[in-house]
Amino acid sequence: MKKLFSTIATLVAAVLVSTAQTEVTPNTDGPTMGWSSWNTYGVNISDALIRQQANAMVTKGLKAAGYEYINIDDGYFGGRDKETGQLLIHPTRFPKGLQGVVDYIHGKGLKAGIYSDAGRNTCGSKFNGDTIGRGVGLYEHDQQDADFFFKELGFDFIKVDFCGGSWYHNDDHLVLDERERYTAIAEAIRNTGRTNVRMNACRWAYPGTWINDVAFSWRTTGDIYDGWESVKGIIKENLYLSAYCYGGRYNDMDMLEVGRSMTAEEDKTHFGMWCIMSSPLLIGCDMAQIKSTPLALLKNKELIALNQDSLHLQAYVCQHIGGCYVLVKDVETRFGNKRAFAVYNPTDEVQTVAVDFSAMELGGTVALRDCFKRRDVGTAEETFQVELPAHGTAIYVATAEQRLMRRLYEAETAFIGNYQELQNNQALPSGIYDDADYASGGCKVGWLGNSKDNYLEWRDVYCPVAGRYRLTFGVISGEARAAQLTVNGQDVKKLTSLKSSSWNSVGTRSVEVSLKEGVNTVRLSNSTGWMPDIDYMTVDLVEAVAVSAVKDGPVHSSDAIYDLSGCQHLSASTPGIYVIGQRKVLVTE
Q: What's the pLDDT score for residue 423?
């Protein structure tokens, strides 16, 4: 029997890697890495300053670490020509225009970024007293400015703000539609013939699921500032947005404040969480004057590797323990045995966190590498204790003997079809992620349904073997509601009378469905009425395809957990069900 178990483990690893490699199409472009002028200098920039920062990126070793964009933010504008509408450049800050500085940046082997607004006026013209910037936004000049920036001057990146399109941020109270404006600007950039320009949509909140087809990255929060409360708030707002980072497009948590005034521990959390959550990494300090400790942090190649990993996934929350969080994501190979995880302490006290490897789907002996210390730290099984200082974070790459099948899918890791943060979600309607201390992960998804687009969808339900599975949904509703269950694009069953004992408790509903080997999509929807709030979904194997024999007792409905090695197409001398530890392991022909 011992020999058989060893054979099972070997086959599990081989089959899993093979399956994962055939399903993944790696993206080639990671989140944008570079420097931006705004955080330190605001509108007070110049030709000489930009050249100085380009020099520093090279001489400080940041270019060698992967940073490549030098982005000129607000403050370079000089109005428009009244007759032609041509954009003018600030006469004293950039007296010779922008071409020379773009050429200088490119001459350093770097890429050049620029800034504009979707409306008429920029944020600096309103809030920084830079009145020369009024009327210089892209509105009514989309193609003219795109040709100027990308065909004539050769910029490679553009950040597009929205002060001029939001009535409460501009003097003429212009009201513009975000989707229409950013789509038009993207089209104007495409019309230049440039296919390598990155556009960042800066609307200060997640604008809507449409943005993935329009921009390379998009801001999800208000502006960052140089302080811990800002960093903590931005991380909080992005904890449950992992489903919207896909296809080589990214949630932007704003520019980095590393190297300015926060503590070394806060800088580590700031940078480390931006890395594992696949946010763009745009340095905001004066690179020429940066001190050695933050410089070394910004050049940490192991953290940067997590940010630029070829899968380009944003880590999601797999444990919420007290006031701390554990976030995890695959690296290098989807559904493999190598994962990166962060243990994050936003509280003001020292915390000890017991990391549960099974919660991140890792089994057996787990080898750990500390990404901050850049060294191996030994192995562990089942749990791992991490002590964190206040505002501290630890980040590891874990390589396990086994990858366990994921059983628990929290609702807050799922995709809402029309998720957005700009309009009243109840009127639209669109679902929201909402803290709930009675929910399994401390969060639920509410206000779903009442529209065909307002659905909840788990897009990465991975099954190592085809078969019959039991899906159990945790639902929250003080009244009977309904939802259509759809699996891999096919309507399976309408679930009716979904309710719990109150609006502050969780009830369950189970249904058996057929799932294919590999990645499955599970959707709950209701186009005509409100759905219950959703806490979670669990996935349990009931019967695998082609079971030919049973050993050590029959399969019962009470058999709660199947190890990953019980869910593979395996060859063994005697197919059947075996007991390994406390788990039933299914072996099939």
A: 95
What value does the mean pLDDT of the chain take?
Answer: 89
Q: What is the phi/psi pair of residue 290, to 5°?
A: -65, 140
DSSP state of 559: -
| Fold matches, 2-25+315-403 and 408-545 | no
* Token representation of residue 283: 């340095």
- Report strand pairing: 362-370 vs 375-381: antiparallel
Integer Cα distance of 85 and 55 in angstroms: 34
pLDDT in tens, 137-166: 999 999 999 999 999 999 999 999 999 998
pLDDT, tens only, 163-175? 999 888 878 888 9
Which residues have a Cβ under 8 Å from the Cβ of 462 and sit 6 or more positions away?
Answer: 334, 335, 405, 406, 518, 519, 520
d(CA 192, CA 209): 25
Which member of 142, 145, 156, 161 is catalytic?
161
Domain 2-25+315-403 has CATH 2.60.40.1180: yes
Q: Given 3.90.1150.10, 3.40.50.460, 2.60.120.260, 3.40.1160.10, which CATH number is that of 408-545?
A: 2.60.120.260
Closest CA to 532 of 471, 477, 458, 485: 477
User: Cα–Cα distance between 261 and 277 in angstroms, integer?
Assistant: 23
The CA distance from 544 to 464, in Å, is: 10
* Mean pLDDT within 218-243: 98
pTM to 2 decimals? 0.90
What is the residue type of 502?
S
The answer to whether 161 is a known catalytic residue is yes
Return the domain boundaries, the chain.
2-25+315-403, 408-545
For residue 357, give the 3-state DSSP assignment. Answer: helix
Q: Give buried/exposed letters for 432-465 (b at 16+ CB in 10 A, else e).
A: bbbebeebbbbbbbbbbbbbeebbbbbebbbbbb
Give yes or no: 370 in active site: no
Residue 277's identity, in one-letter code, is: M
Calpha distance 308→286 (Å, rounded)? 24
- Cβ distance 531 to 483 under 8 Å? yes
- At 545 the pLDDT is 67
